[in-house]
Hints:
Blueprint: E1 7-8, E2 23-33, E3 40-51, E4 54-61, H1 63-67, H2 73-76, E5 84-89, E6 92-99, E7 102-109, E8 116-124, E9 127-136, E10 139-147, E11 162-169, E12 174-184, E13 197-200, H3 204-209, H4 213-220
Parallel strand pairs: 7-13
Antiparallel strand pairs: 1-13, 2-3, 2-12, 3-4, 4-5, 5-6, 6-7, 8-9, 9-10, 10-11, 11-12
Amino acid sequence: xxxLLYSIFFGCFLLTVGLTQEAIVANYKFYDKLPIFNExxxxxxxxxxxxxxxxxxxxxxxxxDNLNANFNDQIVFENQDFVYQLLKQNKKFYTxxxxxxxxxxxxxNIPEIVYKYMDDTKLLNNIIxxxxxxxxxxxxxILWFEKGDINISPWKFSGINGIVHEAYSTDGKARWELVDIxxxxxxxxxPFPKEALxxxxxxxxxxxxxxxxxxxxxxxxxxxxxxxxxxxxxxEIEFDFEKK
Length: 244
């Protein structure tokens, strides 16, 4: 059983020093397949890599690309201005996420991801890419990366020695494609508000998949109800801490 603690981190704690050295900025397209649609939602994703221990990843809905898909606009473009944020620092991930129409801040120790490096290679834009396989929180992933001395990979894929050009889940849920990469000397400021309240990540499944109270009251009237939570359709669907 985990002891769940709430933590408050003020602006003086996270990213107190602006960047003076060059950082690397990698832009990705992120495709997120919804269970009820044939086409994925398309996001603009950006990764700012300060060094191997510090990075900042964001995604925001690309409204132009999604206009070309056959979507229910009310569902797809709801909260279209929300920016998902993932800060890697001090051996932790700090996340700002939108779950069931509510915004949350989470913190967690950086999870260890074990990669299986394969012999397969392919040529993309005259760059030799190498193949890696991993499982992470309930999904299997394939990553195609360019070998290098620094980890440049979207989302939580820490530990790859090189630049990830493509990554995708084998079930078709998620896909990332590198668009461009460059260096910048622009100073980087603390992305989180001073009043941010960071919850332990052990609360993520509850916030993401719990049945809303109104629906729970209706289900309670059905003696045959066996539904205890919503379908797990986020990127993360299984958690080690739930098995302990």
